[in-house]
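Human: Respectfully, please carefully check these tokens:
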Amino acid sequence: MNRMRNGIIYAILGMTAFSAAKVSAQRQNDEQLLRVRETVWRSWFANDTKTLEALVPAETIVISSGEKEWKNEAGVLRGAAAFHAKGGRLLRLEFPRTEVQHFGNVAITYSQYLYEIEQFGKRSVTSGRVTEIFVLRDGHWTNPGWHTDADK
């Protein structure tokens, strides 16, 4: 009876340790994912083409609030270049709320965002919601799609 009880206790402890390790690994994975998400945004505002090309693949589909046309990677790069060419600069970037769902090598983030920019000597703040798709490829997250809406 003692042996059986000890076996059950060890099994429970093992399952608890495995669950804790799994949660810790998921938390680390989400931290990496969210760092990549922020890098994509900051790279766009900075017109960091090299980083954007590495994180935003050719098959990307982007639907942006207030824009009629959908974009692909080339459109994302053109938008970043145009913002930068007009002297635009990012002053603040925040994601006050984010939820993450995982489906194998795919993660979807649902976030509230806020950014403040300066352009033509004027500051403006934009906020809204964004749904972003991330795919884990060769151990690195890529961002092949997103959809934004802006608060009114």
